[in-house]
Amino acid sequence: MSDQGLTPEESSLSISELTELLLRVGYLNSVKDSYDEEVVAAVRALQQDRGLKVTGKCDLKTIEALEEARWKLGDRTISLSSPMMRGDDVATLQNRLLQMGFDVGRVDGIFGLKSESALKEFQKSVGLLSDGICNQNAVMALMRLIRTVAGGGATALREDALRQRRGPALKDKVIVIDPSWGGINPGHSFGEIYESEFTFDLAQRLSKRLVALDVAVKITRDKDSSPSELERIQFANLVQPDLVISLHSDNYKNERAEGVASFYYGSELHGIKSLIGEKFANLAQREISARTGLLNCRTHAKGWDLLRLTKSPTVRIDIGYLSNPSDREKITDSNFRDLVAESLVIAIQRLYLSAESDAKTGTLRIEDLRKAGIRP
Predict the structure, then answer these.
(1) Alpha-carbon distance 229 to 50, whole Å?
(2) Candidates 1.25.40, 1.10.760, 3.30.70, 1.10.101; correct CATH number of 8-69?
(3) Residues 284, 346: contact at Cβ < 8 Å?
(4) How far does Cα 21 stand from its chain's mean position?
(5) Kindly report the CA angle at 154 between 150 and 159, in degrees rounded to 5?
(6) Using CA atoms, how far apart are residues 332 and 341, in angstroms rounded to an integer?
(7) What pLDDT digit, counting tens, does each position of 235-282 carry?
(8) How many CA atoms lie within 13 A of 98 on its CB side?
(9) pTM here?
(10) What are phi and psi of 239, to 5 degrees?
């Protein structure tokens, strides 16, 4: 039996077990006994739909996505537990509560305290026992009362309303900067260039500019530390910032891969996205491309844990490929790093400016913010 598509961390999962799960969620037509091209295609399709890195290999994140995909609303009783319940059934429940005006926060497929509170409010409104447990009675009530509206719209409107209430001034806004450490200690490196050094230096440059504009800046690590992704998520959620910016560089086996790409939380499958995350990702993407000449590799909605579990609007930006000679040369240049930092400051300000106060991409300068009275 071939298991070449299963990573070592998941070696306990057999091919038949994997393909049975893929069959159950509609990506295969039959159970297989080898990791053939059809299985690879099925795994890739699942990864694409779930906003995961598309590799065709079944790693831990893919298995978790498969487990979540297997549940449909009504298959099981949903209640608050430890660890919290996850699944498509939870996402459907959150969406339906949200559509009826109950505040579940972000539709993330994770049944937490806010989801329980919203469910209790719904149960009370329809005369059910308000216990925060989604059983068959609650499901039937949801089915009878659901309205036909776009899923996740209320969350997007709430996000945007909060942004507008905060006003255009950067003063007193809180921003978390998350400089990636990379996947290999002490970070991805090519020659003498380390991803960890580049992202931390860029975070410092960005922080200095934002502090000068009276922004409260928090950085998820110091120069030599490497907190886990979960620790960085917990840090950001504790701070409760207006925005989280995660800085990365990329690499690929083909050195021709180049450019900058940005990612925000969203799922086409569930019809949800972070409105502020998407807007900032687009602004940062355009500003960086216009000012640095990096190839624009566009913005993408993803379900990665960093984007999904961080409660504040979060954007990951992959700036250049260390594996590309041209991008690598730019990344080592101090002037280039300054350009990226200024691009991000301008993108942040444009996020909060009204449309009539906005300026053409690549033209607004930090000095213009002061002249316009943006900074008191």
Answers:
(1) 19
(2) 1.10.101
(3) no
(4) 25
(5) 130
(6) 14
(7) 999 999 999 999 999 988 889 999 999 999 988 777 788 899 999 999
(8) 27
(9) 0.79
(10) -70, -35
